Amino acid sequence: MLKHADTPLPFPRNTGNRAFSGTGSPPPRSSSRDSSRDRKIEHRVVFSDRASSGESRGTASGCETASFGSGSVGPEVSHLGWGRWYTLRELEAATNGLCEENVIGEGGYGIVYRGVLGDGTKVAVKNLLNNRGQAEKEFKVEVEVIGRVRHKNLVRLLGYCVEGAYRMLVYEYVDNGNLDQWLHGDVGEVSPLTWDIRMNIILGTAKGLAYLHEGLEPKVVHRDVKSSNILLDRQWNAKVSDFGLAKLICSERSYVTTRVMGTFGYVAPEYACTGMLNEKSDVYSFGILIMELISGRSPVDYSRAQGEVNLVDWLKAMVGNRKSEEVVDPKLPEMPASKALKRVLLVALRCVDPDATKRPKMGHVIHMLEADDLLFSDERRIGRESSHSHRCEQENHAVAKLGDKRLG
């Protein structure tokens, strides 16, 4: 069944606008919004009551230390190879007792609090919800593997807490909000996200995902790539967040069968239908993210006219009808070069191919994006010379042909 995430909080508290982002405080708002868009409910896909062959369904240990608020002394602090095992008492002190005023986001998976540790370090503390059935051992194994991940485009997991029924994750604090806010929040008539910034965000996100997929053993599949899980620093660099409960896939296995978890509009069709998960599921979600960045539209928006509700279907139709320029976010300060737009659309369409085997790996996506960036720079330097017109015409035909193919 489809579960609805909690109704979004007012913008000053909700880092995801439609769901929590993991970390990060919101960007400034020019004015309060009075539209129905602020009250959208995110559709999370969670088949939480169905056991599967690929995911452990153990029960929590009964021999853990006393739970929060009992007054009992917590477990001794454990320093891991990559971070720390925090006590619940420490995190209570850091977040002022998990108080309402420190909530910076919430959704179907948990509540995120802003906190300050005893040494002055700012952190984001995620108190996981709906974690029934995940035993302490399973939780620790997965989190300790992911905790060793170090990449500039991934939010760093600093440690965790397991006490009683509590499962909490401690992340670095990223203070410029998330992509969902900057795309869909009230940022005025002109977005601060220029074309170059958007391309940098796409490339940074791709590099973070490629590291999870291709730079680790076992590989890590995120399972919930979306705009509210892309945090931004003050230089607009992307940091992928909320992969603390991603699935691990060993090299000898091509996929795992697991509960379907994700966000409506981003979930790959084969994963939603069968529960069979591999890295190509993330590639599909990344393709949706590219489309969202280019168009400024949400993956699913019921307030739009018929035929425009689903972003993928609408964009494919526009590209197939050779109207690529009309899909660009009207809030962009300036239109991108035609060649740059078509190349990125081509990457997006390949990522959302209905046939998962035809989707590129993230490493190949990076190659295509970086090659496009070089060509784009060259084109800007030498100008729009007539010698390029024939090549651009061929490229336009190729993109339109791909759009026609995807529609068929």
Structural notes for this entry:
Pfam families: PK_Tyr_Ser-Thr. Residues 14-24, 50-70 have a biased composition (Polar residues). With 408 residues, this protein is of the alpha+beta class. The chain has 10 helices and 16 strands. The protein has 2 domains: 2-172, Phosphorylase Kinase, domain 1 (2-Layer Sandwich), CATH 3.30.200.20; 179-407, Transferase(Phosphotransferase), domain 1. It has helices spanning 88-94, 136-147, 179-184, 195-214, 269-274, 279-295, 311-320, 338-351, 362-382, 389-407, and strands at 2-4, 43-46, 78-79, 84-85, 103-106, 110-116, 122-128, 157-163, 166-172, 219-221, 230-232, 238-240, 247-249, 256-257, 261-263, 276-277. The longest helix has 21 residues, at 362-382. Mean pLDDT is 75; it is low at 1-25, 28-77, 374-379 and 381-390.
Tags for this model:
three-stranded antiparallel beta sheet, 16 strands, single chain, seven-stranded mixed beta sheet, 408 residues, Phosphorylase Kinase, domain 1, Transferase(Phosphotransferase), domain 1, globular, 2 domains, alpha+beta, 10 helices, 32% helix, disordered N terminus
